[in-house]
Amino acid sequence: MAKQDRVGITIRRTAGEVKRYRIWKKIVPAGILLAALILIIGYVVSVLYMKFGSFTVSVNKLDGLKYALTLSESPDFKTYTSRLNADISEEVTNIDGKTLPNWLANVDGEHNGDNYVAYTFYCKNMGQKTVTYSYEMYIANMTYEVEKAVRVRLYVDEFIHDGKNDIHFADYAYARTDGVEGPEPGTIAFQSGNTIVKDYIEHFMPGDITQYTVVIWLEGPDPDCVDKIIGGEFKVDMLMEVVRDEEEGTDVKSPGIRSAALQPFLLKKVWEPA
């Protein structure tokens, strides 16, 4: 059998090719490292922020004539509806609540700031009876204990039709977790369980209007505003319902129907910067 000739192949590179090869050998790893660094920075930035969803306010009438609450973003109620929606999807970092402006209850509808969510709306008695109705704000969903660092401010002006300034507000927070009894400084502790606050508007006559402003932010100085709440979610609902007919002196039995519902926001990816 004849032997197969073997041909030796020698690859020669010019000095220029060698130089370019060495340069690429340095650039490619550096590029990969830079891309990875950009991704890491992007992730870190994303977890420095919290994301809010939207407000949804809706009304279900107990009785179309006797008990009728309706909603509007304007106190003149030129337009009113059984459902309000405000697209308030925001990304905000934590702040000190002391830096919030003092005019938050003076602007109608959605008026978010750089680092907080704010929404003002109105509830009107369009029915025929003087009633008592309740408003209740509660936590609908929470993860990663993010609720421990959240603040909720609620402004209420009970009877804006009479020209008087009856507005008052309070800041609500999760009870302290540092072993000290009582609420966080300057706040009222969440009322019970998942309920933030529940209160009543009495003597609500036909034509009366109540103004509500809800402000929500992440309190940076709170000791619980730490990196363990990264990825946490926080959702709040606010419900209103007629509970008493004051003219007849009888309680109103709601068959599982609420008069108004508010779903302020969904909070995700939060962290307090070092």
Q: Roughly what fraction of the amino acids lie in strands? A: 25-35%
Task: Characterize the overall form.
Answer: elongated
Low-confidence stretches: 41-50, 265-274
Number of helices: 1
Q: Tell how many strands the DSSP assignment holds.
A: 16
Overall description:
By secondary structure, the protein is mainly beta. Helix content is 12%, strand content 34%.
Summarize the structure.
This protein is mostly beta strands and 274 residues long.
Please describe the topology of this protein:
Blueprint: H1 15-47, E1 50-51, E2 55-59, E3 69-72, E4 83-86, E5 91-92, E6 109-110, E7 117-125, E8 131-142, E9 150-157, E10 168-173, E11 188-189, E12 195-204, E13 209-218, E14 234-245, E15 250-251, E16 260-262
Parallel strand pairs: 10-11
Antiparallel strand pairs: 1-5, 2-4, 2-16, 3-7, 6-7, 7-13, 8-12, 8-14, 9-10, 9-13, 14-15, 14-16
What are the main properties of this structure?
12% helix; elongated; 7-stranded mixed sheet; 274 residues
